[in-house]
């Protein structure tokens, strides 16, 4: 009951803002994600939110995308307090069941996919220090990006411009958090450059959760003509021995949210936690490079992007049956080296048609990832957390080839949109370790996703729209590895398909208030769920139909006397629409809150030299399992506060900020691990915590 009272209280606290709330950004922003060309978001029959650079850096250390994306309705972005497993991101309930990384939501940075062809992505590769904006596209329009179901999150770094500069940012906070970032950039003639390097360190809020992350980024631009530009980007991420605190049971969370789960099989006194005994950890080395060419030919435009990279991971897991490991077990150490590359090319044509204008985009996207994957026992003799005997050796290939077409016809007060994408995703596993059976196999998935949308301009300040699409989502590589019988490759596992419907309205009240509202429904067939988990192998199956129905509302406005505010609210009914073994019809989808809210009241002086804000973040309860039998993570409401000061002294720009999160020191579960076979579902969030930061920039 407390979570309901907290959530209702948060809604009432934000209600006064709804009459007058306001953004710092312009009321009608330009986006590219929905149509792959510049377009005002107000005139699109789609839900798309833009998080600008001011919001990304709003008294934040710019470590996790969750810092900024909490402001977007329909999106749930949780910091697991576990840098070994990345953020947990779900959009309209898609992606919540991912135990690590991001699935169900497509991630893109500067045109380079941060999501592999199988649908698994990594948000940690986003460079937030150089971000100019993040676009979040949800609903039917996002299906034109292929293999996913929930939406697209696309980050754009700023383009080099102006006189050369150099900047240093430092921050420090609770639990030994510290970050240093140095960047430089500028443009001279036709050549522009942007270089950035940072180090982030934390001792971690939870036991055994320390991490160190080094990131580097470079962006070079060349004006090839008055209408053309060549852009080269390169980035790298390095995390060595990032500690994994694992999830905990409900009893452990109640006893001590910081504590780890005790290993009952440990013979020491006192018994060690699983994380300590097995020294659970992950090392990640990720590098990538991209090349993009854009050229305009009158109103037409050509875009060609090529990319490639490498990702190496070694992860030490906990496995408490080390000396009784079944022959089928692939080991407690995951070790893979991945090469990936791809292309995205499209041609935009603008032509008159009847009394209107037709915009046509024709494109092709193709990608491939290749894993040299091995598994080892995580013990030698009685020593745990070390690489032991080989248990797995295979080569994994995943490929996609996706031609697509998008049309937009604008005539008078109407905007009609249509699209078509045909996706082919292929999996091929070649097993070289046959002592535990042959786990090799291959499977192809093919699907065509159509889109239709229409927008009507009721008045210059009110647009209404409707859209519909079919989408699909293949299993990830990890989900096709094993079948439910404990045997090898699960070539019978099908892709989930969805029918998405949406209606909405966008309204402007002068230059001061903007309201977006969307009603949506998504019916999914062949939803993927856990089939069995034993002997170190987790298998999946197509189980059931699901239904997602919801409302998203965002309101921005500009108050007088320097005040501004934002409200972003989501109500979501996400259920199993058909019963299957152990799960009743009407059960809630795990990992998905019934409602979520972000509310902010901010102030800044006329010159923008001093800024302050109060934030409210609230969420309904979350079930961690399909059967809805486990204790739900209770709902919560927390309050954050921030203040920032800016000074300009000749060629120098100085900024200082302070932030306090969870001001009232609430104890709550920040995220859940859906369907954990050991019932260690819960990942606790920090109590009251703080961060201080400063930056200095000099422009030559």
TrEMBL record:
Coiled-coil region(s): none
Keyword Cell membrane: no
Membrane topology: Multi-pass membrane protein
Keywords assigned by UniProt, alphabetized: Cell outer membrane, Ion transport, Iron, Iron transport, Membrane, Receptor, Signal, TonB box, Transmembrane, Transmembrane beta strand, Transport
Cited CDD domains: ligand_gated_channel
Compartments, record wording: Cell outer membrane
PROSITE patterns reported for this sequence: TONB_DEPENDENT_REC_3 (PS52016)
Residue span, TonB-dependent receptor-like beta-barrel domain: 233-662
Position of the signal peptide: 1-21
TonB-dependent receptor plug domain: residues covered: 43-152
Family statement: Belongs to the TonB-dependent receptor family.
Name the record gives this protein: TonB-dependent receptor
Organismal lineage: Bacteria, Pseudomonadati, Pseudomonadota, Betaproteobacteria, Burkholderiales
């Amino acid at each position: 009951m407390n979570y309901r009272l907290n959530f209702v209280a948060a809604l009432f606290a934000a209600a006064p803002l709804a009459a007058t709330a306001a953004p710092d950004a312009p009321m009608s922003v330009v986006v590219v994600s929905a149509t792959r060309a510049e377009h005002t978001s107000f005139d699109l029959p789609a839900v798309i939110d833009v998080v600008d650079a001011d919001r990304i850096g709003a008294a934040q250390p710019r470590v996790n995308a969750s810092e900024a994306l909490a402001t977007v309705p329909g999106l749930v972005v949780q910091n697991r307090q576990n840098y070994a497993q990345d953020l947990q991101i779900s959009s309209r309930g898609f992606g919540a069941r991912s135990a690590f990384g991001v699935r169900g939501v497509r991630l893109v940075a500067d045109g380079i996919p941060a999501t592999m062809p199988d649908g698994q992505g990594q948000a940690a590769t986003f460079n937030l220090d150089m971000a100019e904006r993040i676009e979040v596209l949800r609903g039917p329009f996002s299906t034109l990006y292929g293999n996913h179901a929930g939406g697209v999150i696309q980050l754009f770094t700023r383009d080099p411009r102006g006189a050369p500069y150099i900047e240093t940012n430092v921050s420090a906070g609770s639990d030994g958090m510290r970050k240093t970032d140095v960047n430089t950039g500028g443009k001279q003639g036709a050549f522009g450059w942007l270089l950035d390097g940072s180090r982030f360190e934390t001792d971690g809020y939870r036991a055994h959760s320390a991490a160190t992350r080094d990131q580097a980024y470079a962006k070079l631009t060349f004006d090839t003509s008055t209408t053309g530009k060549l852009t080269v980007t390169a980035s790298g991420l390095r995390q060595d021995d990032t500690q994994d605190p694992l999830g905990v049971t409900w009893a452990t969370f109640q006893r001590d949210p910081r504590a780890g789960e005790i290993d009952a099989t440990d013979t020491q006194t006192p018994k060690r936690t699983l994380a300590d005994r097995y020294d659970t950890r992950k090392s990640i080395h990720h590098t990538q490079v991209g090349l993009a060419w854009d050229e305009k030919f009158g109103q037409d435009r050509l875009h060609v992007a090529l990319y490639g990279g490498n990702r190496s991971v070694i992860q030490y897991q906990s496995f408490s049956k080390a000396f009784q490991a079944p022959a089928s077990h692939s080991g407690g150490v995951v070790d893979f080296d991945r090469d990936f590359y791809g292309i995205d090319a499209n041609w935009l044509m603008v032509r008159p048609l009847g009394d209107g204008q037709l915009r046509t985009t024709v494109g092709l996207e193709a990608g491939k990832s290749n894993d040299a994957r091995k598994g080892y026992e995580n013990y030698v003799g009685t020593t745990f957390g070390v690489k032991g005997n080989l248990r797995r050796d295979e080569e994994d290939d995943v490929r996609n080839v996706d031609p697509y077409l998008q049309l937009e016809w604008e005539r008078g007060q109407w905007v009609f949109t249509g699209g078509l994408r045909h996706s082919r995703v292929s999996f091929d596993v070649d097993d070289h370790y046959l002592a535990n059976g042959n786990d090799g196999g291959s499977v192809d998935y093919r699907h065509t996703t159509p889109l239709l949308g229409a927008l009507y301009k009721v008045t210059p300040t009110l647009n209404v729209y409707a859209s519909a699409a079919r989408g699909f989502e293949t299993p990830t590589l990890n989900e096709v590895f094993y079948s439910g019988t404990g045997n090898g490759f699960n070539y019978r596992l099908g892709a989930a398909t969805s029918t998405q419907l949406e209606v909405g309205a966008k309204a402007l009240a002068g230059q001061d208030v903007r309201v977006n509202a969307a009603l949506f429904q998504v019916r999914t067939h062949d939803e993927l769920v856990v089939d069995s988990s034993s002997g170190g192998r987790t298998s999946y199956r197509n189980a059931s139909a699901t239904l997602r129905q919801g409302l998203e509302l965002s309101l921005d406005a500009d108050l007088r006397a320097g005040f501004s505010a934002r409200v972003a609210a989501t109500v979501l009914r996400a259920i199993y629409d058909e019963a299957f073994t152990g799960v009743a019809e009407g059960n809630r989808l795990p990992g998905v809150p019934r409602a979520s809210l972000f509310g902010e009241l901010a102030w800044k002086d006329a010159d923008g030299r001093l800024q302050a804000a109060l934030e409210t973040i609230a969420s309904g309860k979350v079930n961690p399992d399909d059967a809805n039998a486990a204790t739900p993570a209770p709902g919560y409401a927390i309050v954050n506060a921030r203040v920032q000061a800016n000074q300009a002294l000749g060629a120098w720009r100085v900024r200082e900020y302070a932030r306090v999160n969870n001001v009232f020191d609430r104890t709550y579960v920040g995220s859940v691990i859906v369907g954990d076979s050991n019932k260690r579902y819960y990942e606790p969030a920090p109590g009251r915590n703080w961060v201080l930061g400063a930056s200095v920039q000099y422009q030559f």
